[in-house]
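can u do me a favor
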């Protein structure tokens, strides 16, 4: 563990956030705000055991990865751990279950294939961190990487082909009508054939599809950070686009003629899939890190205001809410029986909630308190500098450095993972 005693602080402290990039430094500020409420304080630095992936439920078992580098199998009724598989990096990739094989990726650059008992079948190494959820079709696994490549991998773990874009691929590929659809940080939406040959690109003015996309009746729906939701046909022709207040920040889910997605403007939207018209929108107290899950006319969705909402899917009216102490970011609920399961960010837990909105159980990952940071995993490490006055030991200013050495002051502005200046609040620290 790495500890900082405020009594020893006399100059600026640099925390390496390379393992998480944007996500980790928000977590750091969150923890600082929490520990500053009590003193004396001795606090830790690290990525923690956040559960920011969407679980998979199968035969009474919940499978989920976490930022503590472990992939877990948990009994759906009791919350008891059945087994864990440890990787060498945080797991932010959503898992995919096909037959008796679990596929998921890690920030250690690898795609993993496990049996349902947690035994490694094989792993495939890329040249970058992997956020993308694996897509599986006809015994081929498709996945994007921060090394800019989309990979097609055979069921035995051997490489079939790669396709290179001009920037990071966080998008989860969609295989639909013998075509592969995905977005890239190079602002383009791509369509390939099953042999990895480019059929067309659709340019936007922002990063496209960080999460999952969907397709219905020959129309593919995807979002871009240019604030638009796009509907295109399988030949790349625009059907419609809807410009929103801020970029959609989540996957796109389809149910009963409506598309559900959420944005950084704190809104979740229901949008007509045929016309692009907004049918309803609901505002929460903070931003939505992922979209909801539709089940029997209800949209279940977590928010960074520490709440899980159950909304009427047709109207957006609230049915119930479940409040806790942690933010629900980038984890979409999964339903099994009469319960929903969702991962929590700074609580480092998997929550099991009854469909009436009451708590069934929680499961803590191994790092419910943050461990030390492992900067060697990212040669392009991003950093935050905390400049503190020795006599009072409070935060004076914060800066964020990009991988290109460029320094940006985020005070008073919005970005993908920060809202205005809520993380520049000054906090006092005392010592024992």
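np, heres the sequence
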């Amino acid at each position: 563990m790495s500890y900082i005693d405020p009594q020893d602080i006399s100059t600026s402290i640099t925390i390496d956030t390379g393992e998480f990039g944007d996500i980790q430094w928000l977590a750091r500020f969150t923890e600082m705000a929490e520990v500053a409420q009590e003193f004396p304080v001795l606090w830790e630095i690290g990525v923690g055991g956040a559960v920011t992936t969407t679980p998979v439920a199968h035969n009474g078992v919940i499978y989920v990865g976490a930022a503590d580098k472990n992939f877990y199998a948990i009994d759906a009724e009791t919350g008891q751990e059945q087994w864990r598989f440890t990787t060498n990096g945080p797991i932010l990739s959503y898992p995919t279950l096909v037959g008796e094989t679990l596929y998921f990726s890690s920030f250690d650059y690898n795609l993993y294939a496990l049996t349902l008992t947690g035994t490694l079948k094989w792993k495939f190494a890329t040249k970058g961190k992997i956020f993308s959820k694996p897509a599986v079709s006809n015994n081929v696994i498709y996945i994007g990487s921060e090394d800019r490549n989309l990979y097609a991998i055979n069921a035995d773990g051997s490489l079939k082909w790669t396709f290179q874009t001009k920037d990071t691929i966080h998008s989860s590929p969609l295989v639909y009508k013998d075509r592969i659809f995905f977005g890239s940080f190079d602002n383009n939406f791509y369509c390939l054939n099953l042999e990895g040959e480019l059929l067309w690109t659709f340019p936007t003015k922002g990063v496209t599809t960080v999460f999952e996309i969907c397709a219905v009746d020959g129309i593919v729906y995807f979002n871009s950070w240019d604030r638009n939701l796009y509907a295109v046909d399988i030949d790349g022709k625009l059907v419609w686009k809807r410009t929103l207040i801020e970029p959609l920040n989540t996957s796109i889910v389809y149910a009963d003629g409506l598309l559900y997605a959420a944005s950084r403007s704190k809104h979740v939207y229901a949008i007509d899939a045929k016309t692009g018209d907004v049918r309803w929108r609901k505002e929460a107290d903070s931003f939505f890190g992922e979209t909801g899950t539709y089940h029997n006319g209800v949209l279940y969705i977590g928010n960074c205001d520490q709440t899980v909402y159950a909304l009427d899917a047709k109207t957006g009216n609230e049915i119930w809410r479940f409040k806790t102490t942690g933010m629900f970011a980038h984890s979409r609920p999964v339903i099994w029986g009469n319960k929903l399961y969702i991962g929590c960010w700074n609580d480092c837990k998997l929550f099991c909630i009854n469909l009436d909105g009451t708590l069934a159980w929680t499961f803590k990952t191994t790092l419910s308190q943050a461990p030390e940071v492992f900067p060697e995993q990212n040669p392009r490490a991003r950093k935050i500098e905390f400049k503190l006055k020795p006599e009072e030991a409070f935060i004076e200013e914060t800066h964020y450095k990009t991988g290109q050495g460029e320094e940006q002051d985020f005070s008073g502005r919005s970005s993908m993972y920060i809202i205005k200046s809520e993380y520049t609040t000054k906090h006092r620290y005392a010592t024992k």
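The radius of gyration is 21 Å. hope that helps!!
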